Amino acid sequence: MDLGIRGRKALVCAASRGLGRGCAEALAAEGVELVINARGAEDLARTAQEIAAAHGVRVTPVAADITTPEGRAQVLEALGRQADILVTNAGGPPPGHWTDWSREDFIRAIDANMLSAIALMQALVPGMMDRGWGRVVNITSAAVRSPIGQLGLSNTARTGLTGFVAGMSRQVAEKGVCVNNLLPGIHDTDRATSLDQGVADAQGITPAEARARREATIPTRDYGRAEDFGAACAFLCSQQARFIVGQNLLLDGGALNVTI
């Protein structure tokens, strides 16, 4: 299927690896020009070179912390303050217990996983509206639908972003801008490896055992792959997604057992 987005320009955040890279790869395969962002300059530069070589599109790496005003300014300058597609993404806050988190912990989580995405939308969506076309995909978490106790900081910040998008997306749709959220369950990424290590340490088992136990709770009996996630992202950015607005697409292998 031709997604109809060849020649568009996209910003993909946290794209040097994992789910962000999966999204960048899928968009590049559709002929989308990319500005990709992450904090690690070396990994990001290598990712940009590999994607450009594989798909024949321009890929501009911007090493910066997207959760800070300074980092966002660098990325927006590289874009020329204009993009057709925005994919927001930022690493989740550390796990812990609700009694231990301070106000500063919550502020850091909200800055990283809620306010940074909102700031990018405020910077780029008005231009999309003026041009009559745009797509925004926010990478949030399955925890928005089914909270994870030890990830309370993430639950809080990402649910706040979901509420913002629920209202804002309906206000921009008439201008041809579709804003939606992708909610990943466990995928085979560095984040999953870190979480499995935490479980292993807490329970006195190996990381492989921790992973096997988690896989047993997923109907597909495995972790998601970044390329699957990227394909879903690319579709939400397509011409064919024009009637999908303000939705939360769960990609978790069926782990959340609900009817609706």
What does this protein look like?
The chain is α/β, with parallel strands linked by helices and 260 residues long. The chain has eight helices and seven strands, in the order βαβαβαβαβαβαααβ. A seven-stranded parallel beta sheet has the order 3-2-1-4-5-6-7, sandwiched between helices. Helix 4 (103-131) links the parallel strand 4 (85-88) and strand 5 (134-139). Helix 4 packs parallel to helix 5 (152-172) and helix 6 packs across helix 7 (207-215). The protein is globular and about 55 Å long. The relative contact order is 0.15.
SSE order and pairing:
Layout: E1 9-12, H1 18-29, E2 33-38, H2 41-55, E3 59-63, H3 69-79, E4 85-88, H4 103-131, E5 134-139, H5 152-172, E6 177-184, H6 190-203, H7 207-215, H8 226-236, E7 248-251
Helix pairs in contact: 1-2, 1-8, 4-5, 6-7
| Low-pLDDT windows of residues | none
Mean pLDDT score, rounded? Answer: 96
Fraction in helix: 40-55%
Radius of gyration: 18 Å
Read across the widest sheet, the strand sequence of neighbours is 3-2-1-4-5-6-7
Order of helices and strands: EHEHEHEHEHEHHHE
Q: What is the count of DSSP helices, taking H or I runs of 4+ residues?
A: 8
- First-residue to last-residue Cα separation: 28 Å
Question: What is the overall silhouette?
Answer: globular
Please state roughly what percent of the residues sit in beta strands, choosing from under 5%, 5-15%, 15-25%, 25-35%, 35-45% or over 45%.
5-15%
Instruction: Tell me how many strands there are.
Output: 7
Structural class: alpha/beta
**Biggest sheet record:** 7 strands, parallel
